[in-house]
Amino acid sequence: MIKAKHHSFTIWFFDLYFRLKMVFHFRGMEIYANEQADPRKSILLLQNHFSWWDGYWSLWLSKRFFKRRFHVMMLEEQLRKRMFINRCGAFSVRKNSRELIESLTYAAGILDDHQNLVCLYPQGEIQSQQVKTIAFEKGASWILKNVDKPVQVWFCVTLTDYFSSSKPLIRFCLKQYKGEQTSQRMELAYNSFRDECINKQHD
Question: Can you name the residues that pair with 177 across neighbouring β-strands?
Fold first, then answer.
């Protein structure tokens, strides 16, 4: 597997590059959250995956809202095509291989440090934002069962809408999940929260 690295210059350049691109493509970003993260615990961020922008948005949230060192799990074949993302905190996973457990164990180890955040796209692939239900794979629940230190689980529902503007607005709806840490329970809770966020969309 490919382990995460953190190069200050690469992270700075990556952040600057995408902030400039954001000016041309979007009219703004808004965060909706009813509470702040506990600074004493690491964070497993479960986020929907529907666009090329998702990795940058996860990094942005990690720095601006959660104030943690960013890590994100990516399919190895995708990461090898974009190795600069590895220097921003991306590490690899190969599904249906012997290395899968190695990647999940590595993620659990990252979460043993309260200064870290691991972003996971629980659906396991990019899907249309219009899918009715996001199906969770079992990686998140496996990681949580194998972390030694306390971990916060946060849901992020990312939504984009144009309404009457020529550019879409990005909304990050965040909620800490405190229920049973099984794939089935987290999937039900996430989709319920996602429906709630969609119903609250407004211009």
Answer: 153
